[in-house]
Design goal:
The chain has helices at residues 2-5, 9-20, 23-64, 67-95, 101-130, 136-172, 193-206, 210-224, 228-235, 237-256, 259-279, 285-302, 306-309, 315-343, 346-388. The chain is an all-alpha fold and 389 residues long. It has a single domain, classed as MFS general substrate transporter like domains (Growth Hormone, Chain: A, Up-down Bundle), CATH 1.20.1250.20. Helix 2 crosses helix 4 (67-95), helix 4 packs antiparallel against helix 14 and helix 7 runs antiparallel to helix 15 (346-388). The longest helix has 43 residues, at 346-388. It is globular, with a radius of gyration of 22 Å. This is Lysosomal dipeptide transporter MFSD1. GO terms for molecular function: transmembrane transporter activity. Pfam families: MFS_1.
Length: 389
């Protein structure tokens, strides 16, 4: 992209930001619309349409060598992308309960990372194949249009899932079950403080993964003198590993519980990985492997915790808020990461990532203290209830 479109690293990272910026606001409203207006079925279909249209605009922008049109495509793609994740999380919570959730979220992450790994290892080959017939930005545009076929598959899956969900509710006669309560926008201010702590932990962690992977290819080639193909394989290790082990970690978390401690473990291990990249010349595959394991642990343990602290009728809004905060962080940190690399280099970038992870550990500790305080207050209330009566 940088060569064919004559982009600098900051402009390239702008594609990530244009994906993330709309979701700073729209994820929240997407979750609210799922809870209040669309329902999870129609919501998933609508947001899948946005994803498909956005990818097509992105490919068209490359085909015409129009950077602004590509940014518009990423913006439209972003409108649907993260809200679609909110719908996906809602489906998971509706279909699976209790200790099944960690494995299900791990399995969702696994399939998502399979897509990322396939993308990393096939798009360059598709581009090379098409470059035998056309060159430059035209070749890039055709490659991106081929990639949009997977977005069409996503839309088909959303339609099928809506059919099966409706059929299931009709057969089991659960369509009318529920509390009858409806989310209101003003309810957000009354969300448990633990929801906001989870949001903070989420953003502190994810801003050290996705921007790093986005810039990782050049980093690995420059610092470790890797061949492009080897650097590409190393850079995809995080997603490849998470695709394999996320369901296994989810199952382990289901069996043992202790989601909070699993999340702390994931953050600390990732902190060690970034420190290794910053201050050593150890084989880069080693920290990448541990980062992939840590990422799988954290994602499998963190996202199900939202369902434990908010009622079911508020889940879409709560997940939307979490995605919004995450995307605010990704949008700003992606730009900051590109600027840091341009002006200060990769060592300062790694120190920057380590600082965010330290904040994540502190917030995780605050969450644990809050959780223990709430549990103690509940215990006191239960023990003294007969006396009060």
């Amino acid at each position: 992209m940088e060569e064919d479109l004559n982009l600098d690293p900051g402009q390239y990272m702008g594609f990530y930001s244009w994906y993330s910026w709309p979701n700073v606001v729209l994820c929240f409203f997407g979750g609210y619309l799922i809870d209040k207006v669309f329902g999870v079925r129609l919501g998933a279909i609508v947001f899948s349409v946005f994803v498909t249209v956005g990818q097509c605009i992105f490919g068209l922008g490359a085909l015409l060598n129009r950077y602004w049109l590509m940014c518009l495509g990423r913006f439209v793609f972003g409108i649907g992308g993260e809200s679609l994740c909110v719908a996906q999380n809602n489906y998971a919570v509706n279909w699976f309960k209790g200790r099944e959730l960690n494995m299900v979220f791990g399995l969702q992450l696994s399939f998502s990372r399979v897509g990322s790994t396939v993308n990393m290892n096939t798009m360059k080959r598709i581009y090379a194949l098409i470059s035998q017939f056309v060159k430059g930005y035209v070749c890039l545009g055709i490659s991106l249009f081929i990639a949009s076929g997977f977005c069409v598959m996503s839309l088909i899956c959303a339609l099928l899932l809506a059919f099966f969900d409706k059929r299931s509710k009709r057969i089991l006669n659960t369509e009318t079950f529920g509390t009858g309560e409806v989310i209101r926008l003003k309810d957000v201010k009354d969300f448990n403080v633990m929801v906001w702590l989870l949001c903070t932990i989420c953003v502190c962690y994810y801003v050290t993964i996705f921007p790093f992977i986005g810039l990782g290819l050049v980093f690995l080639e420059m610092k470790y003198q890797l061949e492009p193909s080897t650097a590409l394989a190393c850079n995809s290790v995080v997603f490849l590993l998470s695709a394999v082990v996320s369901p296994l970690f989810g199952l382990a978390i289901d069996k043992t519980g202790r989601n909070v401690l699993w999340v702390i473990l994931g953050i600390v291990v990732t902190l060690g990985c970034h420190a290794t990249f910053a201050f050593t010349f150890l084989n880069p595959f080693v920290p990448m492997v541990f980062m992939g394991l840590a990422y799988s642990v954290l994602a499998s343990a963190l996202w199900p915790m939202v369902a434990l602290v908010v009622p079911e009728y508020q889940l879409g809004t709560a997940y939307g808020i979490m995605q919004s905060v995450q995307n605010l962080g990704l949008a700003t940190i992606s730009l900051a990461a590109g600027a840091i690399v341009d002006k200060k280099g990769y060592l300062i970038l790694e120190v920057f990532f380590q600082g965010w992870l330290c904040v994540g550990v502190l917030n995780r500790s605050a969450y644990l203290r809050r959780k223990l305080a709430l549990e103690e207050s509940v215990t006191v209330d239960v023990d003294t209830a007969p006396l009060l009566t």
